[in-house]
Amino acid sequence: MNSYKIDGNHEVIFSQEMTVAELLDADYRLLSILERLDMQLPFGDISVGQMCERYGMSAELFLTICRIYAKVEDDIVLERLSVDDLPMVLRFLESSHSYYLDVVLPRIERGIDEVLALCDVRQRLLLRRFYEGYASEIREHLAYEESVMFPYMKRLLAGEKIDNPMVDECMDNHTDICEKIDDMKSIIIKYLPESCSIHQRCGLLYDIYTMREDLSHHTRLEMELLAPLALEAERRVKL
Asked: In 3D, which of 140, 17, 2 has the Cα closest to residue 149?
């Protein structure tokens, strides 16, 4: 029987005291967080707090990320975090970029290629156009963060003097990359021919829905966690 606690809304109460096994049993999707932070299984019966101590990470930051990815609707309590957590936030986001570019997008592209082989020319061109536009938008978005936003924040952490503060500008340029995928989902659900097997169609849709959900968590983490910590780092450098 699971021993983790449930609140009045039947949501798991994530805590430092729960074991890692309980955490993953509460929401298996949190495995991806361990993967991106390079936290290696097995963990035996150690607690979340002990695991975070082992890997030199703030348990409060780890649990905050877990709450975001488990879609727990709690507000992020920034008072429990500090600028010292910013390097680990950047590490998690950079690892997420690699996951999107090296794992998820290639997997979706393979699924697209499979269903395109069964489409007529018009359907093939339409779906390919939507996919290529979406993939290009994701790559452009991630490239901006890696070439402009993240290096700037690392300069802040290094204590470098900043003449032109950029955190607000970076967030203003932070586009929503979830919208275009909705058109692609609609085409796959509504218009692909019956020759596309339900197995192929559902496999592709599952990957697309999963990526959209992950990207929405990614965006929330950047807007509600990364930005406030970076603004505080910026304020310290300007003092």
From this structure: 140
How far apart CA 80 and CA 73 sit, in angstroms, is 17
Max CA-CA distance within the chain?
65
- pLDDT per residue over 155-199, tens digit each? 999 988 877 778 878 777 666 666 667 777 877 787 776 777 778
What separation in angstroms does the CA of 109 have from each of 44, 101, 207, 208, 223? Answer: 37, 11, 10, 10, 28
Contact 131, 184 (CB under 8 A): yes
CA distance 126 to 217: 28
Neighbouring CB atoms inside 10 A of 56's CB total 7
Where exactly are the structural domains of the chain? Answer: 20-80, 83-238
Under DSSP, is residue 47 helix (H, G, I), strand (E, B) or coil?
strand
Query: What's this model's pTM, rounded to 2 decimal places?
Result: 0.87
